[in-house]
Amino acid sequence: MRKTLKSGQTYLHNVYDRETLLNKLKNEGEHRLTLSMYRYQTIEDPQSLRDELFLFWQSLGVLGRIYLAKEGINAQFSIAESKFSEFREHLEGFFPGIPIKKAVEDDDQSFLKLIIKVRGKILADGQEDDSYDVTNVGRHLTAREFNEAMSDSSCVVVDVRNRYESEIGHFKGAVLPDVDSFREELPVIESLLEGKQSNKILLYCTGGIRCEKTSAWLRHKGFQDVNQLHGGIIDYVHQVKEQGLENKFIGKNFVFDGRLGERVSNDIIANCHVCGKPADTHTNCEWQACHVLFIRCNDCAERLEGCCSEECQRHTHLPMDEQIRLRKASPQNPPGFFKSRRRIAFMAERTGVEPSNC
Ligand SMILES: [Zn+2]
Ligand SMILES: [Zn+2]
Question: Would you say residue 134 lies in a domain?
């Protein structure tokens, strides 16, 4: 949809509600690829690139969440398989040779809308812009090389993701920083690695983008042997399958689309936040005013009808006008993912069950 603002500026955005979008997708009748890509590359005018990409990608039916900044692009998206080569060709004009990663499992409903946002950075790191050189990165390792490096007992494997991601899946023996967002990550990792400046450091994240910044940061801080898993967990899983390598990743890979997780190994390493039984399915509480992101087992999901607690369940059964009144009166909940520390306090208060400790 193209809309002209009073200033004469053209503004491009989505106008359909969730149900309409879901129906549109269901009727599409074509297999979609779930993809991701990023690149650190100087973009002079991210806003005009944003509008150009939006127009063309919308005509191709691309759906997803894309961030553009002067430092580059970071995108998670889906596209009908038949449109992919046209997409790739157009993309090459802006980001020559950019690697595009395919999700471990496809899901036609991973994304419902196309959202392209211009931001200060493609990955907010909580640091001042010029405090380190983002391009001075560590050595990129393939899955095979990563496995080999891990077998050396003096190496330190570091999960560069958030706690709610590593809680359901990680590499065996990895250091798991207890952080809610990448903004907190760098100083926490630095203190966890205190005294390990000469050890071999092995970093990994979902698709590689967070490792780029983390490895540059660690090198800047005097770490001598910084390595990172090229293409992240997503690519690791593909390589393990294709080359018949040993899989050293246990549990699920958390993903930031409608699925919230892709199974990598059959191990269930987390626990239901309600009853404590083994479980690794993330969902948001059905009660809209709560919307907490939590892990629940199937029994609890059924018993509480998708809610995190009996209290929230009770609210979903109230008459609609009462629900609306309560929603308006409830304190502001954090948008999107409920941050782990607040979630832990929240769940402990409601259930008395300590969160899983893997
Ligand atoms: Zn349970
Ligand atoms: Zn709830």
Answer: no
Residue 32: give the domain boundaries.
2-118
Element (H, E) at 74: strand 72-80
DSSP 191-247: HHTTT-TTSEEEEE-SSSHHHHHHHHHHHHTT-SEEEEETTHHHHHHHHHHHHTPPP
211 is known as an active-site residue: no
Of these residues, 205, 211, 308, 312, which one is catalytic? 205
Q: What is the chain's pLDDT, residue by residue, as a tens digit (358 residues)?
A: 444 444 434 445 565 677 777 787 777 778 899 999 999 888 999 999 999 999 999 999 999 999 999 989 999 999 999 999 999 999 999 999 999 988 876 666 678 889 999 998 888 888 876 677 878 889 999 999 999 999 998 999 999 999 889 999 999 999 999 998 899 999 999 999 999 999 999 999 999 999 999 999 999 999 999 999 999 999 999 999 999 999 999 999 998 777 788 899 999 999 999 999 999 999 889 988 888 888 999 999 999 999 999 989 999 999 999 988 888 877 655 444 455 556 656 666 665 555 443 3
**Which ligand minimizes its atom distance to the CA of 302?**
1
Within 13 A of 287's CA, how many CA atoms are on the CB side?
26
- Examine residue 124 and state whether it is found in any structural domain, yes or no: no
Residue 316 lies in a domain: yes
Q: How many domains does the chain have?
A: 3
Dist. CA 23 → ligand 2 center (Å): 27
Distance from the alpha carbon of residue 162 to the mean position of ligand 2, in angstroms? 21
Q: Is 132 a domain residue?
A: no
Model confidence, pTM:
0.78
Q: Provide the 10 A C-beta neighbour count for residue 305.
A: 12
For the domain that residue 225 is a member of, what is the CATH number?
3.40.250.10
Q: How far, in Å, is the centroid of ligand 2 from the Cα of 270?
A: 19
14 Cα–ligand 2 center, Å? 29
Instruction: Give the number of the ligand closest to the Cα of residue 346.
Output: 2
